[in-house]
Amino acid sequence: MSHFTTMTTQITDPEALRSALGDVGYGDVEVHDHAQPLYGYLGDQRSDRANVIVRRRHIGRASNDIGFRREEDGHYLAVISEYDRRVHDDAWLGRVSARHAYNATSATLAEQGFHIADETVEEDGTVRLVLRRIGAGQ
C-alpha cells in the first residue's frame, strides 16, 4: 500500500483546475467546499483529504484517488500516491498547472469583455493569444 505525497502548486482556481484536469484527460472531477477523504486502490478510505478529486475508477484499476487540497493561502497542494507518481509526475503536474493558468486567464478575459480570436501554440509550449473586445468589430 503506497502512501500519499503532496506537491506544492501555484493553482488557485478550483473551476480552472477542473477544466485543466479535463484538458489532460480526466473529465469526471469532483469539486468540494470541504475536503473529502481520498481512497486507495483497494477502496480503503485514507486519512488524506482533498477538495478537488479524480476518483481512482477514472484513472485506472490499480490506481488511488488523485486530489488537490486547498490550503489556507488559497493555493492547492497536489495529493498523489507514490504509486501514481510514476505517471502523474512533475511533468504531468506541469501540464495541469499550465492548463489551469490558461483556463483561469480565459475566464478572466471573458469577464473583462474579451474573447480569444486566435490562438497559437509555439514549439516551446508558449501560447500566444489574439484578443478581441466582445462587440468590437466581430
From TrEMBL:
This is DUF1257 domain-containing protein. Pfam families: DUF1257 (PF06868). It comes from the Bacteria.
